Backbone:
């Protein structure tokens, strides 16, 4: 299941893209492609255990 | 290779790592991601002096892809735009299951070269690329079947141990360690890529490059790869030590501190100029094939 903090966007204040890209609303940044694997829980990854941004956001 | 190779003016092989799988256009908008962009970047890198292009594949939105079909699109785009460059596919993939790791080897034609990770690599807080001996052996066996030369990825000194263990015990390298199993032998010359950076890669300092080079057995060819601000100094040192070098946006997003690189070709061009200035000619793809026994 995708991370609840994942959003796909084409732009923010600093970037604009032709294609929507993975955006982490927990840190308000576009994320690196490898991190998007966790956001989307691909390849047996799990945002609840593999993403420090998720765990930090959930602990607040 | 040795310092004598430097003094003898042996050609240096430049590899361009064009895109990688870790960061994307959010980090540097000049980093190529689509097959067409990667193809154009490969052509420009070849013109700048690269004789090998190290390839990863991406989805249209920049995210990682491992499927043979996507690698086929990328390698087709590269081959259509380049003259004679050597294609090297990555088989790395932190967090990716083992059955995906061999897919980049299955394009038609097969890549002339492919990376082969020699052991575990940590990234971020919770991710490890395990690279068990079983996986390494399986990937190597498939490379042998398809005539693909491996580039052994030595992320740290322990991975040099792992590399030595699969070198041919019947060779003249005085290794003292047998091949781990039948079929493990490497075609001459073995090609080792020494990696410097953070995490579980070797601490990026000149003394550590010297140490690894001193521990290489005779008869191998080595390449130097260093991340970020270490790319320029350590690859330059690699040239002086008779090694080959890899540069590109996969490893380093900046041309100098605070200034994003304009392209992969810009980084290749700088390294080619340094090599020429230091008295080592830049290898053509044909010369690289001869040096590497392709």
Residues:
């Amino acid at each position: 299941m995708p991370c609840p903090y994942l959003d796909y966007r084409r732009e923010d204040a600093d970037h604009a893209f032709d294609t929507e890209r993975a955006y982490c609303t927990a840190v308000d940044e576009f994320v690196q492609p490898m991190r998007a694997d966790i956001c989307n829980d691909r390849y047996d990854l799990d945002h609840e255990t593999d993403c420090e941004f998720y765990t930090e956001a959930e602990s607040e | 290779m040795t310092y004598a190779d430097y003094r003898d003016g042996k050609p240096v092989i430049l590899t361009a790592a064009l895109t990688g799988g870790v960061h994307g256009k959010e980090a540097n908008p000049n980093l190529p991601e689509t097959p067409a962009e990667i193809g154009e970047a490969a052509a420009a890198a070849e013109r700048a002096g690269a004789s090998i292009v190290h390839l990863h594949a991406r989805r249209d939105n920049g995210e990682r892809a491992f499927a043979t079909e996507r690698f086929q699109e990328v390698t087709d785009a590269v081959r259509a735009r380049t003259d004679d460059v050597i294609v090297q596919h990555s088989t790395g993939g932190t967090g990716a299951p083992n059955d995906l790791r061999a897919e980049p080897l299955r394009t038609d034609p097969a890549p002339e070269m492919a990376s082969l990770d020699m052991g575990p690599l940590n990234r971020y807080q919770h991710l490890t690329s395990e690279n068990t001996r079983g996986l390494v052996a399986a990937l190597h066996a498939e490379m042998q079947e398809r005539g693909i030369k491996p580039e052994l990825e030595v992320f740290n000194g322990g991975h040099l141990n792992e590399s030595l263990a699969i070198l041919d015990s019947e060779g003249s390298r005085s290794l003292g360690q047998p091949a781990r199993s039948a079929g493990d032998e490497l075609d001459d010359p073995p090609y080792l890529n020494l990696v410097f950076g953070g995490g579980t890669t070797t601490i990026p300092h000149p003394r550590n490059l010297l140490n690894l080079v001193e521990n290489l057995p005779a008869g191998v060819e080595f390449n130097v790869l260093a991340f970020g601000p270490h790319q320029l100094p350590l690859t330059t040192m690699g040239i002086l030590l008779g090694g080959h070098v890899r540069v590109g946006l996969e490893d380093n997003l900046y041309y100098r501190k605070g200034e994003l690189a304009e392209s992969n070709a810009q980084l290749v061009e700088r390294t080619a100029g340094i090599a020429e200035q230091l008295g080592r000619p830049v290898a053509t793809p044909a010369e690289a094939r001869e040096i590497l026994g392709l």
Notes: The interface with chain A takes residues 21-27, 29, 58, 60-64, 93-97, 100, 123-127 of chain B (CB under 8 Å). Confidence is low (pLDDT under 50) at residues 169-179 of chain B. Residues 3-292 of chain B form a domain with the TIM Barrel fold (CATH 3.20.20.70).
